[in-house]
UniProtKB/TrEMBL annotation, chains A, B:
The gene is recR. Transmembrane segments: none annotated. One of its GO terms (biological process) is DNA repair. This is Recombination protein RecR. A zinc finger (C4-type) spans 59-74.
Length: 200, 200
């Protein structure tokens, strides 16, 4: 007998092992957890997968995931319509919402410029962003891309593209993470913290 | 707006966050992976969960998970029926099968004695084990429980229970893991390796 499980168990393990962040051991652990759980909760998990796939769509305005288009943020009359925060992915919207510091609108690009993966500006929702900027309402675009190579390239590209427009274009501050130790900061982060120093 | 996603997305994240080894960030990452994947593979994952739950049962003889009872190992005429390996969980059967060193039968206890979690000998498949030992065929019981407190307690308990029977009762060797460094071995493991030393 080969060292694999009977059909349905192995198929379940294989299905979980394909998900991001789950290795073969983790997939096995999850599969046995499901086999040990009651039938109802296993069915709930299966239903949640199918329901999310069926119900979820992308907002026609900002590109965020939602069940109604336009999404609740784009529809909310209390949001500040003069500022648009540009992010890479829908999950970045949630990260910024959690801070409670931002009350404007969003624009999800759907990624960042990454020549190694053949993602160019044409693959991102940049025309949709320019169309939104055509109205008088928007006074500021806040670029909130990931602080890595792809995010920096996209920030630079958008900075040049939006520069000629009559808008304030800003980006998130780089510097030391709150609660961290100066001693353990890498040189680039510490350099950014110095060049971006502020008056007390 | 609260910092949660629209209904179906949040339900999917919550469903995954309940699985072992998956935290809130990991659950979010998996949920967005599924939303980005094609509908077919999301449906396959949902189907695998339901199918495994429906098809999988426990072998009436050894307690291993299987689609047919008795399981393929218990039914296999080439297995050595004179030795039974006692393990805690079905996944332990697979770990021992992968070594290719064992050709006997198994008995899955369904856990280990753990007073902290209110698991006593009565909660394990020990009566089923004793019933199997009633036949003349079985000459040896090999205890292969986890080398932790619960596994040791169960090994001790079973050792006393099976001692009076006309059987060889063995346990897995403790010692240094192959490929490891003597310098980094903990004192208990190194102590076991010394007390269990063998002649060359």
């Amino acid at each position: 007998m080969a060292a694999t499980y009977d059909g349905a168990i192995q198929e379940l393990i294989d299905a979980f092992a394909q998900l991001p962040g789950i290795g073969p051991k983790g997939a096995q652990r999850i599969a046995f957890y499901i086999l040990g759980a009651d039938r109802r909760s296993a069915q709930d998990l299966a239903d949640a997968i199918v329901a999310a796939k069926e119900k979820v769509r992308f907002c026609e305005i900002c590109g965020n995931v939602c069940e109604t288009s336009p999404c609740p943020i784009c529809q909310d009359p209390r949001r500040d319509r003069s500022i648009i925060c540009v992010v890479e992915e829908p999950k970045d919207v949630m990260s910024i919402e959690r801070t409670g510091e931002y009350r404007g609108l969003y624009h999800v690009l759907g990624g960042a410029i990454d020549p190694m993966s053949n993602v160019g500006p044409g693959d991102l929702r940049i025309p949709e962003l320019l169309k939104r900027l055509g109205t008088d309402q928007v006074k500021e675009v806040m670029l909130a891309l990931d602080p890595n190579i792809e995010g920096e390239a996209t920030t630079t590209y958008l900075g040049r593209l939006l520069g000629p427009l009559d808008l304030r274009v800003t980006r998130l501050a780089s510097g030391l993470p709150v609660g961290s130790d100066l001693e353990y900061a890498d040189e680039i982060t510490l350099g950014r913290a110095i060049s971006g120093r502020r008056d007390l």
